[in-house]
Amino acid sequence: MILLEFTLQDVQTILIVLGIALVLLIGAIFFLLTEFRSLKASVDQKRPVAADNSLLRLQAYERLTLLTDRISLKNLVTRMHDTQYSATELAAGLIQTIRTEYEHNITQQNYVNPEVWKAVTNLKDQNIYIINELAGALPPNATALDLSRNILQYTTADNAELSGIVLNAIQYEVKKLI
C-alpha cells in the first residue's frame, strides 16, 4: 500500500484551489441569472401585450355601449312601462334599474379610458337627476303613464339626453383600438 502524505501546505493549496473554483462557479451562476433576467425583460418588452389588452378593452367598450343603451331614458321607459304603477313607484324602479346596471358594469372602468368612464358615470347621475326632477314635478296622484309621457317628451328635445354623446365617445375610443 502506498500512503499518500499530504503536508499542511498541500492541504492549504487544495483548499485555496477549491475556494477559487467555488467562487468562480458562484460568479458564473450569478452572471447567467443576471443575463437570463435581462434577456427575459428584453423579450417581455418586445412581446405585443397590446394585442391581449385590446380584446379586453374592446369587450369593455362593448359592455359600456350596452350599458349606455340600457340606461338611456327612452329605452328605460319603454322597457319598464307598466300602467299599474304610480309615478313614484315607476321613478323608484327606473332609478334602481339604472343603479343596478351601472354596478353590474363597474369593473369595466379598469379597461377603458378614464374620460369615457366619467362620461358613463355622468350619464347615470344625469338620468337619475332627470327622473327625480320630472317625477317631483308631477302631482302626488300621478300615474306611471304621466311620468313615462314626461320622460319621453323630455328625450325628444334637442340634446336632452347625454346617452348619444356617451355613445359617440365610446365609438371614438373603439375606432382608436381597431
Backbone shape:
rod-shaped
The percentage helix is over 70%
Structural class call reads: mainly alpha
Summarize the main sheet: none
Provide the low-confidence segments as ranges.
none
- Rounded to an integer, what's the Rg over CA atoms? 34 Å
Strand content: under 5%
In N-to-C order, the SSE pattern is HHHHHHH
User: How far apart, in Å, are the first and last alpha carbons?
Assistant: 84 Å
Explain how this protein is built:
α2 packs antiparallel against α7 and α3 (73-80) runs antiparallel to α6. This protein has 178 residues and is mostly helical. The protein contains 7 helices and no strands. The radius of gyration is 34 Å and the shape is rod-shaped. Helices cover 78% and strands 0% of the residues. The protein has helices at 8-46, 49-70, 73-80, 87-104, 114-136, 144-156, 163-177. The model has no long low-confidence stretch (mean pLDDT 88).
Describe the structure in brief.
By secondary structure, the protein is mostly helical.
Layout of strands and helices, then pairs:
Layout: H1 8-46, H2 49-70, H3 73-80, H4 87-104, H5 114-136, H6 144-156, H7 163-177
